[in-house]
């Protein structure tokens, strides 16, 4: 006699139909497409965001919204047309499960893979910044809410793909997504600009805390409305997410301000051991040792000199009267690439130029201009100085005469005894921003 | 009905021609709405997205509902496939430049024709590998990534892989686009689109 032993159902039996959907077919391809697209879009100008947490946040957010959402719409839409393409719609309708579980079994794997693709791309961007971060701290809410946005977009796209039986639905829907998001994000003064998850922020600003979550509610509400209107047993249920999406949209459009200043961007860290002191914005505090090192020659030559600005400052807005502006380190990718100063000599020259400030004078006396250039040469010569000297040496008689006068002025300043030069420089810096040439000591 | 008419109907060619015409009209409207006569750089969305849509339409037309049956035919298919691809590409290349006629140097007609060739080549190649119905995906990813990433290299000489957004008539960008068209079109001509449901 044979005994039949009843096999116990496995714990994960309920997920069996989903497993092939996750592992094979279009879902992994959609995730890979999102990952690759975002990585390529982020990689090419990597120097413009790598190293700055706010820059990384803005770049990944823009890529996720402008590229990820249209791609998620297209991927969902393509998956939505699968049953029609395979002609299995009638067969599926005979299954025991309702329309919503059938829809979710097909839609969730694609939406999850799209979300995972985005998360991996955002994670790569965060890692790329982490190893050369210049200060501040990572902003994690933005990539997380972007992932939810892409998930919702893929679900919404799937609903469209189910309804519209046309070969080009997916690329056309994605292009419409491009156009709508581009239109909303292009002009931030637009009344409806708040409806785009990509709102006008700069690296010195933050969105108000609720904006990313309300954006998710707005996009997710629309997607849920489409899904429930298509699949729910009682279509009226779709009114609930529609009401939530409408409330979110009204909140975003009617809000007075969706951004606020980043408190970190208002603070500075300073090295007070030099003259002038060197202060760097707290967002780039890790750059302070490099900047102090780059300016060490200049600050060393100014030791004991009076009438100098108290510090080089690095805050938004105009400098105070007793401060000089530190040369800008932003936008990243120019002076600073991956957490390193690209040209310390040029940076020091720019800092020296901010001390010799007669840029706002309408006209400058020849002798005063020559003296300014000699002081500039003494503090931190321009990397281009030799090139312009050579050019003048090959120029006209007048050019050569001017070059000779400039060289004599430089030699006179260098030839002074240390105490004499310190006194002369103190007298010079007392008039460094005066346009009237009569009181300026000249060389 | 003759074989040619049957072929055109089976590949949805009338609808594809209509889609190309609609894309051209949309491109003309978009170029006008963006005030591109003020600054040719504003044409970038038009010069990138219009060839993408045209290539997606051409790619979708490469689908055959009776692929396995077609492959049992005695007559060779390559000249039909070639004529199909060339005619639609020529039509797109003739219609889309109408949107950017005002300046030839920066994102003008040569750039539009080049992008039509490159995008169609990518789509035809994708039809061989992924199937005609999904052939829009690779070109869509490429255009998306370039459109955003290119802002970092704009103003300098663009590398060959960024042919899509070369503003002028750079020979490197043209060579890459023509090569893509030759490779993708050649692969489609020889192998045909991959049979997918």
Quick summary of this structure?
The complex is a heterodimer of chains A (443) and B (197). Chain A is mainly alpha-helical.
Describe the protein in words.
The complex is a heterodimer of chains A (443) and B (197). Chain A has helices at 18-23, 26-43, 53-80, 82-86, 89-93, 99-130, 141-163, 169-186, 211-231, 239-254, 288-294, 296-301, 344-355, 366-379, 385-393, 397-415, 418-430, and strands at 205-207, 259-261, 268-271, 277-281, 311-313, 323-325, 336-337, 340-341. Chain A has three domains: 15-260, no CATH class; 267-355, no CATH class; 359-443, no CATH class. Chain A starts with 17 loop residues before the first helix and ends in a 13-residue tail after the last helix. In chain A, the strands form three sheets. In chain A, strands 3-4-5-6 form a four-stranded mixed β-sheet, covered by helices on one side. Chain A is mostly helical and 443 residues long. Helix content of chain A is 57%, strand content 6%. In chain A, helix 2 (26-43) packs antiparallel against helix 3 (53-80), helix 9 (211-231) packs antiparallel against helix 10 and helix 14 (366-379) packs across helix 16. Chain B is an all-alpha fold and 197 residues long. Chain B has one domain (3-191). Chain B contains eight helices and no strands. Chain B starts with a helix and ends in a 6-residue tail after the last helix. The model of chain B has no long low-confidence stretch (mean pLDDT 88). At the A-B interface, helix 2, helix 3 and helix 8 of A face helix 3 and helix 7 of B. Chain B: The chain crosses the membrane at residues 43-62, 82-100, 112-132, 139-165, 171-190. Chain B: It comes from Streptomyces fuscus.
């Amino acid at each position: 006699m044979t005994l039949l032993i009843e096999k116990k159902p496995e714990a994960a039996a309920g997920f069996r139909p989903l497993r092939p959907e996750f592992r094979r077919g279009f879902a992994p391809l959609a995730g890979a497409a999102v990952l690759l697209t975002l990585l390529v879009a982020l990689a090419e100008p990597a120097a413009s965001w790598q190293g700055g947490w706010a820059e990384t946040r803005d770049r990944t957010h823009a890529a996720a919204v402008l590229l990820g959402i249209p791609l998620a719409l297209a991927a969902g839409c393509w998956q939505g047309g699968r049953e029609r393409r395979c002609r299995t719609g009638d067969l599926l309708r005979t299954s025991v499960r309702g329309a919503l579980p059938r829809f979710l079994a097909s839609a969730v794997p694609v939406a999850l893979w799209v979300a995972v693709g985005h998360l991996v791309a955002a994670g790569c961007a965060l890692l790329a910044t982490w190893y050369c971060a210049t200060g501040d701290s990572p902003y994690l809410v933005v990539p997380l809410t972007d992932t939810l946005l892409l998930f919702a977009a893929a679900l919404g796209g799937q609903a469209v793909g189910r309804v519209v039986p046309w070969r080009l639905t997916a690329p056309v829907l994605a292009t419409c997504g491009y156009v709508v998001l581009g239109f909303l994000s292009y002009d931030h003064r637009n009344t409806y600009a708040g409806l785009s998850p990509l709102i006008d922020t700069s690296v010195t600003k933050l969105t108000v805390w609720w904006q990313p979550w309300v954006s998710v509610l707005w996009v997710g509400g629309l997607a849920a409305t489409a899904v429930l209107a298509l699949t729910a047993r009682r279509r009226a249920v779709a009114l609930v997410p529609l009401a939530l999406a409408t409330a979110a949209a009204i909140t975003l459009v009617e809000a007075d301000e969706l951004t606020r200043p980043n408190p970190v961007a208002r603070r500075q860290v300073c090295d007070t051991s030099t003259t002038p002191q060197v202060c760097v914005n707290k967002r780039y505090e890790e750059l302070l040792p490099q900047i102090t090192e780059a300016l060490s020659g200049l600050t060393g030559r100014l030791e004991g000199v009076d009438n100098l600005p108290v510090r080089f400052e690095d805050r938004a807005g105009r400098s105070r009267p007793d401060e000089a502006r530190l040369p800008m380190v932003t936008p990243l990718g120019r002076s600073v690439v991956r957490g390193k100063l690209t040209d310390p000599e040029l940076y020091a020259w720019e800092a020296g130029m901010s001390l010799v400030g007669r840029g706002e004078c309408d006209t400058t006396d020849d002798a005063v201009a020559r003296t300014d250039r000699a002081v500039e040469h003494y503090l931190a010569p321009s990397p281009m100085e030799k090139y312009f000297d050579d050019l003048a040496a090959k120029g006209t008689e007048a050019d050569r005469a001017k070059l000779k006068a400039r060289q004599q002025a430089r030699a006179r300043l260098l030839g002074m005894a240390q105490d004499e030069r310190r006194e002369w420089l103190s007298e010079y810096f007392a008039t460094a921003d005066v346009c009237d040439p009569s009181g300026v000591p000249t060389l | 009905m003759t074989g040619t008419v049957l072929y055109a109907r089976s590949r949805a060619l009338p609808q594809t021609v209509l889609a190309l015409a609609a894309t051209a009209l949309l491109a003309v409207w978009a170029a006008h709405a963006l005030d591109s006569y003020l600054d040719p750089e504003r044409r970038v969305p038009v010069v990138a997205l219009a060839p993408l849509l045209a290539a997606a339409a051409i790619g979708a037309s490469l689908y055959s509902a009776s692929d396995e049956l077609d492959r049992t035919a005695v007559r060779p298919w390559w000249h039909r496939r070639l004529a199909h691809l060339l005619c639609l590409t020529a039509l797109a290349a003739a219609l889309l430049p109408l949107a950017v006629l005002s300046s030839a140097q920066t994102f003008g007609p040569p750039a539009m024709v080049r992008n039509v060739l490159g995008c169609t080549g990518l789509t035809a190649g994708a039809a061989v590998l992924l199937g005609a119905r999904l052939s829009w995906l690779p070109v869509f990813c490429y255009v998306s990534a370039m459109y955003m990433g290119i802002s970092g290299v704009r103003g300098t000489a663009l590398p060959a892989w960024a042919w899509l957004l070369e503003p002028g008539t750079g020979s490197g960008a043209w060579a890459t686009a023509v090569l893509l068209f030759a490779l993708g079109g050649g692969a489609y001509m020889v192998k045909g689109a991959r049979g997918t449901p």
